[in-house]
Amino acid sequence: MKAILPLVCAFLFLNGCSFLLEQPYDREKRTKAEHPNEQAKPKSPELLEGNSETFTGKVVLDNGGYRFEPLNEPGTLLKLTRARRETEFESGQILLRKYYEKMITVKGMRKDDWIWHADITGQYVPPGAPTGPNMNAPEQERP
Length: 143
Known about the structure:
It is a single chain. This protein is an alpha+beta fold. It has 2 domains: 4-34; 53-124, CATH 2.40.50. The protein is built from 2 helices and 5 strands; from the N terminus they run H-H-E-E-E-E-E. Strands 2-1-4-5-3 form a 5-stranded mixed sheet, with no helix packed on it. It is flat.
């Protein structure tokens, strides 16, 4: 009986640690695995074309990843990429950590939750606020 108690405690401790160390993207992977019917459509390797738009918004931290939130669509979180092919969106993603809590303007084209062929054309800070990159922003946990 005394030999079983440490084993039970160790088992409970390890399960508790794995639960506490779970990352937001782990939940996304598990959700996709539980709902295989909700597969995304295949990505096209073709060059995308369209008319550029200018978006103004703020960079926010959401579930461990930095996202762009347009002013005219509060609550909508977008990722930025320089890529022009849908298959390259994630590899060409623009890291937004240095723009955290800053107002920026982005020129690009929108597709789903991406702004592709994106260029950050402006950065606005309120009077008296520090300028330059915000390298004190929390580390990004997921792309």
